[in-house]
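seq:
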Amino acid sequence: MKDKKKEKMIAQDIKIEPHKKSDTDKVLPVKLTGNSRFKFNCHKGVKCFTACCSNINIVLPPYDLLRLRKRLGMSSEDFINQYCEIEILAKTLLPVITLKMQNDEKRSCPFVTPDGCTVYEDRPNICRYYPIGMATLRNKEAEGGKDEFYFLTKEDHCKGFEEDKEWTIAEWRKDQEADVYDDVNRGWMDILIKKKSFGEREFPEIKNQMFFMVSTNTDYFRTFVFESSFLDTYDIPAGRIEKVRTDDAELLKLAYEWLRSAMFAQEPLIFKEGVLAARKEQADAVMRKVYGGKDKE
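struct:
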């Protein structure tokens, strides 16, 4: 009975989930940690090589999208138009980017060939994690109010589990560089979790557009930071400003902080001294002009 309850919890709160292709594929209802061990290996000599690269739904978080489009030397807009679709997440009602599969019988990934993945060094994080999944449960007693853990998916066709190579999950994440992707995308995932806590309540369209643009177009956000009043408004250390100027990963982390402020009225960014007072004075001046010096009734 406990296992059934645990399996239900996993199904409800999965954040990074290996794809399942048939009803007999198994998500093992066991919470794993970074020290948990498993046997798995994938290489061209495995009979099922590239079989997992079709008929799948791959959401591209901002860093995944950034790595792919830069590898191909494409702008955000061109990459999205050619390789992606826009999807509204059911439990957050926020727009995200998914990788568009090819229009063939298998619905193959556009980057897979019989010899393997053509963008392997910059492949999406869900591909890096496979066959591991990562889940987040809301837990007030856990650090940060959430409990992150891992689980294992076994697909019928996969022969990788018959290999002798043994890993801990922490070793697997490091070897696949999934930890790098997690670090950069974590702020974006936190926004999704925060929005999910609001229930299925739609945000104004302007907020959805803002979330989409900042999440998908680093060039747009960099222009916003350096060619608007952004740096006159927020107290950003000089060292961080220089990192943001040249490092897209640091730019994305700043973007998530700004989104939290703009979407949820949180204040992860510190206003410069006098900014709030000036804004209040400006608002008061508008009110005086509207009401002609009379008190608002």
